[in-house]
Amino acid sequence: MEKDFEVFLPTSQEITEMSQDEFEAWIHKAFIVLQERKIQRDPLSHLRKRISQILDGNYATEALREEAVLQAINSYYKRFNS
Fold first, then answer.
1. Cβ(50)–Cβ(72) under 8 Å?
2. 65 contacts 53 by C-beta, under 8 angstroms
3. Angle at 32 between CA 29 and CA 72, to 5 degrees
4. Contact 37, 8 (CB under 8 A)
5. CB–CB of 1/44 below 8 Å?
6. Hey, is 44 helix, strand or coil?
7. How does pLDDT run across 8-37, given as a tens digit for each residue?
8. Alpha carbons 32 and 9: distance in angstroms, whole number
9. Residue 68's closest CA among 54, 79, 56?
10. What's the Cα-to-Cα distance from 37 to each of 48, 55, 59, 60, rounded to whole Å?
């Protein structure tokens, strides 16, 4: 499920021409935007990774582990199937 996005990355010339403040602001924005795009391009892989982390975690009971998996699945459906 590859998702297409509008171009976000500036050209090398635009990066070179940015002031220090502009570049710093762009870095902060890029950090957030690029992480979000990575997830949106392949949300099922990220859900699989999250569930795997839950299953490897130290939950006191099976019921707590099941609840954590259910929350991860609910979050996925709310975010990508609404």
1. yes
2. no
3. 165
4. yes
5. yes
6. helix
7. 999 999 999 999 999 999 999 999 999 989
8. 13
9. 54
10. 17, 26, 30, 34
